[in-house]
Amino acid sequence: MAISLNSGFEMPLMGLGLWRMEKDQIGPLIITAIKLGYRHFDCAAHYKNEVEVGKALAEAFRSGLVKREDVFITSKASLQLWNSDHGHVVGACRDSLKKLQLEYLDLYLIHFPIASTHTGVGTTGSVLDEDRMLDMDTTISLESTWHDMEKLVSLGLEARNICATAHTPLGGSVANTKDFGSISCLDDPILKGLAKKYEKSAAQIVLRWGIQRNIAVIPKTSKVERLKENLQVLDDFKLSKEDMDLIKTMDRKYRTNPASKSWGLDVYA
Ligand SMILES: NC(=O)c1ccc[n+]([C@@H]2O[C@H](COP(=O)([O-])OP(=O)(O)OC[C@H]3O[C@@H](n4cnc5c(N)ncnc54)[C@H](OP(=O)(O)O)[C@@H]3O)[C@@H](O)[C@H]2O)c1
User: Fold this and answer.
1) Is 40 in the pocket of ligand 1 (CB under 6 A)?
2) Where is the active site (predicted)?
3) Which of 38, 47, 108, 198 is catalytic?
4) pLDDT tens digits, 175-210
């Protein structure tokens, strides 16, 4: 299953996320994933494993397992671009391409939306002030940016076929509990109830909820059994409208991936 982008390209709805993937597991896992049918890989410079991903992809292309044009590969500009250091876009992209051993990417993203001091549309500025501190514009909250994003959606972006990808589609599961102390959505009683009803796992319920809304999902797993389990949601069951609506009501009002806490500040506050 794929979603058609307004660029004319297709993005498979199921992808494999590669954050926190152990370097020595990546090669065999990517080859297995391709054999199982995965055709979408979510990479980033910041995941620090693009060299290993590149080796595995090169091997897959060289051996004829899959053709480059049949795989959708995303990368994201490195940490500097989480902010406003756009001066390095071309260099950062070239660096990822080199490491991934690719001639092109299917999607290239700015990794993280942080408002650093604005220097004018189309211009760039350093994210560090003269004291080498993060030069944030604290008058622009993430919430206000989010509302502006919602405004854009209502202005018709959806109608223009701009598609969304759900990163962390499992809420990070135990990885985010371990890293951030987050509560795993996979333990939620409603989702567990639906899992029982459909004779599926809670993970399969949330992934299906994503793709049934035509949102691409990129769960990360290092386990072959879970590669299969996650892929299965593409074709062997469907959530009823009633259950889709039920999940929609489940806003627990918390984030599972408060990444900026490791920088010593909470940008979501
Ligand atoms: N800003 C961004 O652009 C951004 C931010 C965050 C994430 N991402 C992307 O999104 C991908 C996915 O997000 P994520 O890795 O943070 O979280 P996630 O995919 O929601 O959850 C990953 C966790 O779920 C476990 N898991 C996988 N399949 C499972 C299943 N069927 N049942 C139970 N547990 C399961 C994994 O463990 P095992 O590995 O042990 O199976 C791992 O602990 C990342 O790898 C990255 O590519 C992008």
Assistant:
1) no
2) 47 (proton donor)
3) 47
4) 888 888 888 899 999 999 999 999 999 999 999 999
Q: Could you identify the atom of ligand 1 that is nearest to the CA of residue 112?
A: 1
Distance (Å) from CA 92 to ligand 1 centroid: 24
47 flagged as catalytic: yes
**Phi, psi angles (nearest 5°) of residue 17:** -80, 140
Number of domains into which the chain is organized: 1
Which has the minimum average pLDDT: 107-111, 177-181, 244-248, 257-261? Answer: 257-261
Total-model pTM: 0.75
Contact 182, 171 (CB under 8 A): yes
Question: Which residue's CA lies nearest to atom 8 of ligand 1?
Answer: 167
* pLDDT, position 53: 97
User: In the prediction, which pLDDT does 87 show?
Assistant: 37
Higher pLDDT, 3 or 91: 3
The finding on whether 41 has its CB within 6 A of some atom of ligand 1 is no
Structural domain including 134 reads: 2-263
Check whether 88 is labelled as a binding-site residue: no
Chain centroid to CA 102:
20
CATH of the domain at 119: 3.20.20.100
What region, left, alpha or beta, does residue 65 occupy, with left being phi > 0 and alpha being psi -120 to 50 degrees? alpha
Q: Is residue 268 part of a domain?
A: no
